[in-house]
Amino acid sequence: MRSTGKYNYIRKECLFCDSTDAAGHPVLYKKSFKDEELDAAAFEARKTTRHAHYEMVKCLKTGLIFSRNILDDESLNELYKGSEIHFNEMLEFIKKDYWRPIAKYVNGWKTDKALDIGCSTGFFLEVLKDNGYKEVYGCEPGEEPKAIARSDIRDNIHTGFYKPGLYPDNYFDLITCFQTLDHLSDPLGMVKNMYDNVKPGGHVYMIMHNSNALQARIFGEKSPIIDVEHIYLFNKENLPMLCEKAGFKVVSVFDIITAYPFSYWIRMAPLPVKKLWVSLFKVLGIYNKVLPFKAGNMGIILEK
Ligand SMILES: [Zn+2]
Predict the structure, then answer these.
(1) DSSP state of 273
(2) From the CA of 161, how far away is ligand 1's center (Å)?
(3) For residue 166, what pLDDT is reported?
(4) pLDDT band (50, 70, 90) for residue 50
(5) How far is the C-alpha of 187 from the C-alpha of 291, rounded, in Å?
């Protein structure tokens, strides 16, 4: 374990204002941890640890919420080393939730080549391939997920971060990226890189937290999105601004509907005498029904 004060910090600035004035970017939440309390667990199983977060500030002009001083790459890599992947039991439902918003568009799109950034086990590459995309590619920093990827997809998963030069310019018909943009130190850099890699007339589809979602507004600092993993948090107004800065036309910005079985929400809910509730809902015949819900995520579709 590293001793206090050994972590190095770098200062982040607003993505929209040229000015770095403090008055225009007041502190929203104070830093919630001391360096010596920080360990790999803060970066993974968030359900079991309390939320650690950096000092977070808010841009008065655009509503952008961001971490003011973040750990540098070296410190982060050390902390991430110890984190593990967690299998998501809801994966089959997530695949449907992520596909639904673009299903209506894909008929009119070219479907030769697609890329998923931060593809994990390639679960969305499976969806794309099963829906007509001929060649699907992924990149994922972790080695573990690739090992369990579907055999027809595995060889096209690159182990490492997405960066300029990794793929040719004007190459993909579609680039997708889920729950990643708000983890990045340079989100505009990544969106610009996507712009280069996508073909003229091609599309980008991203999903991330919405910092203006009902849950985020109700829970404030206690919201799971106020977390050391998140550097820039966007909303439906400033996310399109960022993408337009990179050169894209915005096709649509929308809420993501999470449709999990009722049984999942019951298990997650802080209900007393849960067995009784489970029995009740089983008797009523709704225990295994799918319940659509806005869980605080938004999606955006872009065109080059
Ligand atoms: Zn600003």
Answers:
(1) S
(2) 28
(3) 97
(4) low
(5) 33
What is the signed CA dihedral for 284, 89, 137, 202, rounded to 10 degrees? 40
SS3 of 230, please?
A: coil
**Residues in CB range of 276: below 8 A, 6 or more apart:** none
What's the CA gap between 71 and 3, in Å, rounded?
Answer: 15
Q: 9 CA to middle of ligand 1, Å?
A: 20
Cβ neighbours of 283 (radius 10 Å):
9
Instruction: Specify the pLDDT at position 4.
Output: 47
pLDDT at 47: 43
- The alpha carbon of 13 and the centre of ligand 1 are apart by a number of angstroms equal to 8
What is the 21 CA–ligand 1 centroid distance (Å)?
A: 9
Q: What is the CATH number of domain 91-260+290-303?
A: 3.40.50.150
Q: Each residue of 145-167: pLDDT tens digit? A: 888 899 999 999 999 989 999 99
Q: How far is the CA of 268 from the centre of ligand 1 (A)?
A: 36
Q: Please report the sign of the dihedral spanned by the C-alpha atoms of residue 172, residue 163, residue 165, residue 303.
A: positive
Burial of 80 (0-12, 13-18, 19+ CB in 10 A): middle
User: 221: which 2 tokens?
Assistant: 């600092």
DSSP sequence for 39-104: -GGGGS-TTTSPPP---EEE-TTT--EEESEEE-HHHHHHHHHT------TTHHHHHHHHHHHHHH
In angstroms, rounded to a whole number, what is the distance separating the alpha carbons of residues 241 and 62? 9
Provide the pLDDT for residue 3. Answer: 42
Query: Is pLDDT larger for residue 73 or for residue 5?
Result: 73
Q: Which of 300, 163, 179 is nearest to 241 (CA)?
A: 300
C-alpha separations of 227 from 7, 223, 232, 243, 268 in Å: 18, 8, 11, 23, 20
